[in-house]
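Project standup — Tuesday

K.O.: blocked on the structure for the chain from last sprint. Re-posting the sequence here as requested.
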Amino acid sequence: MRAQFVLSEIGVGLRRNLTMTFAVIVSVALSLALFGGSLLMREQVSTMKGYWYDKVNVSIFLCNKNDKETAANCTKGAVTEAQKQEIASELKRMNIVESVQFETSEEAYKHYKEQFGDSPLAASLTPDQMQESFRIKLKDPERFDVISTAFAARPGVQEVQDQKKLVGDLFNLLNGMNFAALGVMTLMLIVALMLIVNTVRVSAFSRRRETGIMRLVGASSFYIQMPFIMEAAIAGLLGAGFACVLLVSGQYFLVNNWLVDKIDVINFIGWDAVLAKLPLVLAIGLLMPALAAFVALRKYLKV
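H.V.: unblocked you, prediction finished:
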């Protein structure tokens, strides 16, 4: 009997405040979708860092005859064989170096043609204009400064380049987008909480006569509050359900059926990462409105 009464009161409350309940559902859905999306983006950035940082190298570009006027270390002309041998042997003695690969100017020219063959500049380049280089794989990519300090000012070295910096700007952009999404999510969450509190206020005010009678006949505070808390929890759970639909749809349509085909250099996260976030989204969608309603009812159901 008590359960039937509570369920009937929940139905009455949802029907009376249908517009505000719908607004709560939409706000919770958008805020939790942004929350889940932010978690997934953070995991994606972490995966990309692990993938790319494991592949990037430190490059020591050597002087050629065309760098004499443009690079401070190349005023004496192209790098000599003795200088190359000295650099190679010193690199092999460093315990932070995992592997060293020497790239000739012909190999550099070939790689450039493969990557930028359609560029107008590629037609005017010749192999002797390309720089020889040492491609260095570090055991710890963060130790680039050791290589830079040791070789940047060395005669015959035109430049020491850390490829990690080339992808660092991309990761900074992705992290900035993630923080922006978290900011919007926080704003939407505040709006959703305010809507929940206002919905509870209106519902409690419209049923103040019934709750007053229940208090007079000896009903407990928890029993009186239960229908209002359940209303908020159901609205939040529906919003969380829609958020899960948005996350699953984003993974299926945006990632799997579009980005994977358009961007093949990124190892995108899979369904396991998405499905792992759904229970958290549902739990927050259920508990957050219920707690907000419980706090609001402590004041507005005093008889």
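K.O.: great, moving the ticket to review. Strands lie at 58-62, 97-103, 133-138, 157-162. The longest strand covers residues 97-103.
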